[in-house]
Amino acid sequence: MNQILDDQTIEINLPSKVGYERVAMASAAALARLGGLAPERVEDLKSAVAEACINAMQHGNNWRPEARVVVHMDVSADRFIVSVTDQGDGVPEVPKYPGIEKIIEEKVSPRGLGVFMIQQLVDKVNFNQTADGGHTMTMEIRSTK
Amino acid sequence: MTQANEIQMEQLGAVTLLDIRGDITILSESFLNDAYEDANNQGAGKILLKFQEDAYINSGGISVLIQLLAKTEQNAQQIGIIGLSDHFTKIFNMVGITKFAKIYKTREDALEAMS
Amino acid sequence: MSAKKQMVRRINNHAVEVSLPSKLGYERIAMDCSASFAKMAGFTPQRIEDLKTAVAEACLNAIEHGNKNHPDTRVLVTMNFKDDRFSVSVKDGGNGISRLPRDRTVMRRIENLEPPKGLGIYLIKQLMDEVEFNKMTKDGHSVKMVIKLKN
């Protein structure tokens, strides 16, 4: 993470605290508008960024407030790429969303909703482990689906 | 940095309206549960949930709603939803909320369908 | 020192940091970012508008200054909310991610700028509760702005 940033990249560095994902959301929306991403996709982007940050804070960082979440964003006219990195020490895998029927009818506990939402909203998602034990989720949204 | 939901209950014929102000996140749990308990205790059979169109709704809030729907399902209550933006209407569909609650475009549509 | 350790050491409070290219237009990201944070902190919409204007002006100054000296530098915006005080620092003159304080040494070498002139600076002073201008290094300047939550 100590690399020189590409001259177009935005970096946001957040504490792992409830609500701070909204700051990343606002930044992503501002960059998307600046870069000319199609307006219909900006809402998808906002939710995806929020969920990825919450996921990083909750599963990656265990809600330790001093653990950071680093967001990198890049935009061009036809696509928006964002990566969200946690510091690790959390669960390596996010549980899978079991579907609403299982939760309501079979009393399975709700989980994995955030990642499920992300997968539905963006065009590409990748999960990777970082060199120092953290995780990075990289998402791509294209102007035209 | 606290978050509170102000929820007002209104009786519209056979339908109990819960007008929910504010963002819907994990922090909404106590507010939504309390409001539902009140409605439930008053024997509400049909409940209309109204959200603010510009509300921030995240997975934590959706989890809370799903848990609520588990209760309404158990209590055989009919649930309607209004006030959602197109974006969150899409998301509610994606996660399957529409299998247990119906989303309406307007209050009138909801009341007509539910009364 | 591993990147992880550096990251943990660097920001040991609840600050939010935004690193931007030193390019016109990118101040909007700092504006919306600070507005979002200030909204969470409980500031009124009017005060948030004041903040956005001040942040924009500070960033524009940084971009101008940065471009004059090093077009490939970045603008670093650091925000924090503590004890009812919302502070935003805007720094220019860094490359890539801001390096960690060595800060302690750098801080001790702060020289005060001549009071900078210009409409942007005037606006910042009018709109914010506290303003501080500092020259961090030969090539870097910083502006720190504070608004306070009133009841």
What does this structure look like?
The complex is a heterotrimer of chains A (145), B (115) and C (151). Chain A has 4 helices and 5 strands, in the order βααββααββ. Chain A has a single domain (10-142), classed as Histidine kinase-like ATPase, C-terminal domain (Heat Shock Protein 90, 2-Layer Sandwich), CATH 3.30.565. A 5-stranded antiparallel β-sheet of chain A has the order 1-2-3-5-4, with helices on one face. Chain A has helices at 21-35, 39-60, 100-105, 113-121; strands at 10-15, 68-75, 79-85, 124-129, 135-142. In chain A, β2 (68-75) and β3 (79-85) form a beta hairpin. The mean pLDDT of chain A is 89. Chain A has 145 residues and is an alpha+beta fold. Chain B is an alpha/beta fold. Chain B has a single domain (7-108), classed as STAS domain (Transcription Regulator spoIIAA). Helix content of chain B is 41%, strand content 23%. Chain B has helices at residues 29-41, 59-74, 86-95, 107-114; strands at residues 6-12, 15-21, 46-50, 78-82, 102-103. Chain B has a 5-stranded mixed β-sheet with strand order 1-2-3-4-5, sandwiched between helices. In chain B, α2 links the parallel β3 and β4. In chain B, α1 (29-41) runs parallel beside α2 (59-74). Chain B is globular, with a radius of gyration of 13 Å. The model of chain B has no long low-confidence stretch (mean pLDDT 95). Helix content of chain C is 42%, strand content 26%. Chain C contains 5 helices and 5 strands, in the order αβααββααββ. A 5-stranded antiparallel β-sheet of chain C has the order 1-2-3-5-4, covered by helices on one side. In chain C, α2 packs antiparallel against α3. The longest helix of chain C is centred in the middle third of the chain and has 25 residues, at 45-69. The N and C termini of chain C lie far apart (45 Å). Chains in contact: A-B, A-C. Chain A binds chain C through residues 1-5, 7-15, 17, 19-20, 22-23, 25-27, 29-31, 33-34, 65-68, 70, 87-88, 131-134, and chain C through 2-4, 6-8, 11-21, 23, 25-26, 28-29, 31-33, 35-37, 39-40, 72, 74, 95-97.
Computed over alpha carbons, the radius of gyration of chain B is 13 Å
Structural class of chain C: alpha+beta
Number of domains of chain B: 1
Oligomeric description of these chains = heterotrimer
Average pLDDT, all residues of chain B: 95
Span of the ends, CA to CA of chain B: 40 Å
What percentage of the residues of chain C does DSSP assign to strands (E)? 25-35%
